[in-house]
Specification:
The protein is mostly helical. The chain is 75% helix and 0% strand. The protein folds into two domains: 31-230, MFS general substrate transporter like domains (Growth Hormone, Chain: A, Up-down Bundle); 240-471, Up-down Bundle (Growth Hormone, Chain: A). The radius of gyration is 23 Å and the shape is globular.
Length: 478
């Protein structure tokens, strides 16, 4: 395919140009909240599966089914590598898919069925069949189904609206439903512990039942809530995956977004990984170890609509910067929390919940804008591949954060138990507070010069629509 004319984009435009961009897509139909909620509902079971996969599955398969911890660790390590590899493969293939049902819908439908089947096998395992080979095979199918749902649905979300702020709205609904899914899998086992503590099998089945019960209706709602927008390019020229990947990783705005999200996620994983140690051993509040994490997620449900409004008012880049600086300040304020100082810790936890994911939300909303700029420059729509690359940050970030934080506090002399020296406890506090704060500051510096603001994106959309009209495909939203 011939390369399309490339519109240079710059963050600074005069007032007239900016005002014009406000009305660039005035003909686009607004997306109803009810339909957006239905479309985003698939995030509930998908997000709800991640936490128990880390918390309950390894422990249960070791204690209840007798698998060795070494075997489980190796299986999960290999499974994570497969998970990382599957994302870009699914993203690239969904970009190339051409069916009368659309590009993304067939992948989500098949992936949902595979995800449901593998979830049933993972969370309700037949005891007589459980072996290391069984766990490895089920995880292989589980991660593949997860990728087949998550990557195409993320790409489709970026295509629902061509409007700069419309995309923020779509991503905010996804973030809201994702928070609800995470909150549910935190609350349900907590309630169970009040009536039947220590019942790991029932806990696993309770979470598995939640995933399966929410998957069926949410999958249907996601598939029927919207029609896929018409393609705005002629059938793609076949390219090798290596060539497409090279072009993607040479896209500097995408790399800027990916790097920022990876650093943000790393900082969040430091906080999540150390919060129990901090509450139990530094604060001396073991009863609040799980409660603080749950409290943060309860207020985190309100974060998505809050930051969607902020992003619509001031722009994605500015909202991302504001959110990252707010989270940096909240984490630095933890230095002023001392043992027994529960009120200030609760206040900072609530503030953390209200700012939770603000940067991640805006960065995710930026990916579709970056994909538009890439399509204008190259003539190829690689939205699915772009979102699959962006998904890597959710997997690289935690590995980076925990891989730095745990060895660092161990080097400072901290051990998970009583009898730590005051210096070791202070080191724990400083890593817990300053590790995430530094990550948020670095992410701010990375995204500071991101070039795609609302006016620049409006120019890119006008150029793409002009080209679509020339080739006769159009871009009207259905």
């Amino acid at each position: 395919m011939a390369t399309l004319p490339y519109a240079e984009y710059h963050p600074g435009r005069d007032a007239a140009r900016s005002d014009e961009s406000q009305h660039a897509h005035i003909g686009e139909k607004p997306l109803s909240p009810l339909r957006l909620a239905g479309f985003a509902s698939i995030a509930v079971p998908i997000a709800g599966a991640g936490l128990p996969l880390a918390l309950f599955v390894p422990q249960l398969y070791a204690s209840e089914f007798g698998l060795s911890l070494a075997a489980i660790g190796l299986i999960f390590l290999v499974g994570r590598f497969w998970d990382v590899a599957a994302d870009p493969i699914v993203g690239a293939l969904s970009d190339r898919t051409r069916t009368r049902f659309g590009r993304r819908r067939p992948w989500i439908a098949l992936g949902g069925l595979l995800f449901g089947l593998s979830s049933a096998l993972l969370f309700f395992p037949p005891a007589a069949l459980v072996t290391p080979a069984y766990l490895a095979a089920v995880l292989f199918l589980f991660y593949l189904g997860w990728s087949m749902v998550e990557i195409p649905s993320s790409a489709w979300a970026g295509e629902l609206s061509a409007h700069y702020h419309g995309r923020t709205r779509v991503v905010a609904w996804q973030a809201l439903l994702r928070s609800i899914g995470l909150l549910a899998v935190l609350v349900l086992p907590t309630i169970l512990d009040q009536f039947d503590p220590g019942n790991g099998t029932l806990k696993l089945q309770l979470v598995g039942g939640f995933i399966l019960l929410t998957l069926a209706p949410s999958l249907v709602l996601t598939l029927i809530s919207f029609r896929e927008p018409p393609l705005t390019e002629t059938p793609p020229v076949r390219q090798s995956f290596a060539r497409a990947a090279a072009l993607v990783f040479s896209d500097r705005p995408l790399l800027r977004v990916l790097a920022a999200d990876t650093i943000v996620t790393a900082g969040q994983s430091i906080r999540a990984g150390l919060i129990v140690f901090f509450a139990v051993w530094y604060m001396g509040l073991p009863a609040w170890a799980s409660g603080l994490y749950l409290l943060q997620f309860i207020f985190g449900v309100a974060a998505a609509p809050l930051w969607q409004r902020i992003g619509t008012r001031i722009g994605k880049r500015e909202a991302a910067i504001t959110g990252e600086l707010a989270q940096a300040a909240i984490n630095i304020a933890l230095l002023f929390v001392f043992p027994g100082g529960l009120p200030l810790l609760i206040a900072l936890t609530i503030a953390q919940g209200l700012s939770q994911g603000s940067g991640n939300l805006m960065l995710r909303a930026m990916v579709a804008d970056v994909a538009d700029a890439h399509r204008l420059r190259t003539g190829h729509d690689r939205t699915g591949l772009f979102f699959s690359v962006f998904a890597l940050s959710a997997k690289l970030g935690p590995a980076l954060g925990i891989g730095i934080a745990l060895p660092l506090i161990a080097w400072a002399g901290f051990r998970a138990g009583p009898g730590n020296a005051p210096e070791a406890l202070e080191a724990l506090k400083y890593v817990f507070a300053l590790g995430p704060a530094l990550a948020h500051i670095i992410a701010t510096l990375i995204i500071w010069r991101f070039p795609l603001n609302e006016a620049a994106h409006a120019e890119i959309r006008r150029a793409l629509e002009h080209h679509a009209q020339k080739v006769g495909t159009g871009f009207s939203q259905k």
